[in-house]
Amino acid sequence: MRYAGIAKMGYYPTPLNMVEKIRDRLVSSGPARWFDPCCGEGEALASVAPLDAVTYGIELDGQRALKAKEQLDQVVHCGYEWARVEPAGMQLMWLNPPYDSQSGLGGEIFRKELIFLKDLTKYLAPDGVLVYIIPRYTLGSEMVSTLVHRYTDLAVYRFDDDEYKAFKQVVVFGRRRQRNLTSSKEMTEADRQVKNELLAYGKDENLPMPYLDAPDGRRWTVPTAENIDTQILFRGYILDEAELRLDLAQSEAFKVAANMLMPIDTGSTLRRPLLPFRRTHMATLIAAGALNGAVGVGENRHMVVGMTRKIVEREVVVNDDGSETIIDTESYVTAVRTIQPDGTILDLQ
């Protein structure tokens, strides 16, 4: 990638006039989750998603993530590798990945477009729609095989001439298979035909390819999401304050702590017992702190604070061989602390 592309983190937004033509190829069948794992400022997904869609975006750059939050329903600021996303939770994935390559083990070179496709396909539900925007020259053998094994109903269209010049971008539409193909033997004749077509487009850049607005009548229907109102897993690696509050509210440990630290009924009072308390009852109530506060009338008025202390008694036993065994015995002692009007403090136990 050139230095300018590195500075942008591979960010080259889809031209809005091409976004409109892509939108014309999509049909909404009802409320669904629309997902862009490289959302930038969120304009592309916000432009194509219908009003009843719930939109999700992932963005690595902090400033662009802030702008995307103004356009999309949910945005996380991190790389997609660190995001926590519900598997098969999305009905449409708009994927415009960085156009670049990276080195793997043994010096092997991999295209990032292919890596993103392999890693992110798992988030698209069966029959979900893929909108994949990539340079034409990346339609090599491995890329095409990955598409055919994971998607059906595939077709590819090119950008208009003015927008095509910079990166030779094309748009691959597809529908997520119910299950991935495991070998070429499972491919149908239609699968082989579209595979050969995609390979031919990638091999020969002069081979005519239909434009996005070609009048072939093909459109892709986005399936409706079941339980669209149900919150799915969609979190980033970098927790913001809102996510942290939500995580704490759903934490079982926090619920236990809340019951201990923030009792529901903070204004509860003791009711008059049916029978008078015995001394042991009074001692238990005082030790528990239930009778803390001012007690008595006039000169006999004083403060009472109940408490329970743990006492450890240690015994050292000398064994026959001369070694020592230490035995600690724990016991709890109930105590009452009184504070007299003149400041005198007495501990009773």
List the helices and strands and how they pair.
Layout: H1 3-7, H2 16-23, E1 26-28, E2 33-36, H3 43-48, E3 54-59, H4 62-68, E4 74-77, E5 84-85, E6 90-95, E7 101-103, E8 109-111, H5 112-120, E9 124-135, H6 141-150, E10 151-158, H7 161-167, E11 169-176, H8 189-203, E12 220-222, E13 234-235, H9 241-250, H10 252-261, H11 279-287, E14 293-295, E15 302-318, E16 324-339, E17 345-348
Parallel strand pairs: 1-12, 2-3, 2-6, 3-4, 6-9
Antiparallel strand pairs: 5-13, 7-8, 9-11, 10-11, 14-15, 15-16, 16-17
Helix pairs in contact: 6-8
Domain DUF6094: 7-182
Pfam families: DUF6094
Organism: Alicyclobacillus macrosporangiidus
Attribute tags:
4-stranded antiparallel β-sheet; 349 residues; elongated; single chain; disordered N terminus; Rossmann fold; alpha/beta
Mean of all residue-level pLDDT scores: 86
Largest sheet: 7 strands, mixed
Rough outline:
elongated
Structural domain count: 2
Q: Which CATH architecture of the largest domain?
A: 3-Layer(aba) Sandwich
CATH fold node name of the largest domain: Rossmann fold
Secondary-structure element pattern, one letter each: HHEEHEHEEEEEHEHEHEHEEHHHEEEE
Q: How many helix segments?
A: 11
User: Which radius of gyration do the C-alpha atoms yield?
Assistant: 34 Å
Task: Label the structural class.
Answer: alpha/beta
State the helical fraction.
25-40%
The CATH homologous superfamily of the largest domain: Vaccinia Virus protein VP39
Sheet with most strands: strand arrangement: 4-3-2-6-9-11-10
Regions with little confidence, pLDDT below 50 for 5+ residues: 1-9
Q: What is the number of E strands?
A: 17
Strand content bin: 25-35%
CATH class of the largest domain, please? Alpha Beta
Distance between the termini: 78 Å
